[in-house]
Amino acid sequence: MIFEDDKVQMRVHDGVFELFQRRNVISPYRTPLDWVRVQAQVRKRGAVLLHFSYADDRDAPIYGRLMGSVYSLATVEIAMADEPRYRAFFAELAELAGRPIQ
Fold first, then answer.
1. Closest by alpha carbon to 74, among 14, 26, 33?
2. Are 93 and 62 in contact (CB under 8 A)?
3. CB-count burial class (<10 Å; 0-12, 13-18, 19+) for 10
4. Burial letters 14-41, b for 16+ CB under 10 A, else e
5. How crowded is residue 2: how many other Cβ atoms within 10 Å of its Cβ?
6. pTM over 0.70
7. Which pLDDT score is estimated for 24?
8. Rounded CA Rg of the chain
9. In the predicted model, is pLDDT for residue 68 greater than 80?
10. Which of the chain's ends, N or C, has fewer CB atoms near its CB within 10 Å?
11. Each residue of 8-43: pLDDT tens digit?
């Protein structure tokens, strides 16, 4: 399973999730799919920041809105108009991992 955008590639293979960014090729985010957590933070100027971190609970949603502070292992800024495409990809990941999406 692969998702590609102009500056981002996300993929899952054999239960491992990987995030690659053109602006940060030295340190990709790579983790077991069961540990993935993405929180969306709506910003001004019609942008959304996606914060990638680890889920504390296996039953926690893979994707949801940021409700407080977050420790990010990787952050991707996307246009608000692109958020539904990303959310759809995270919904597929949630189904694959047997986890909810918020």
1. 26
2. yes
3. buried
4. eeebebbbeeeeeeebebebebbbbbbb
5. 10
6. yes
7. 67
8. 13
9. no
10. N
11. 999 999 999 999 988 766 678 899 999 999 999 998
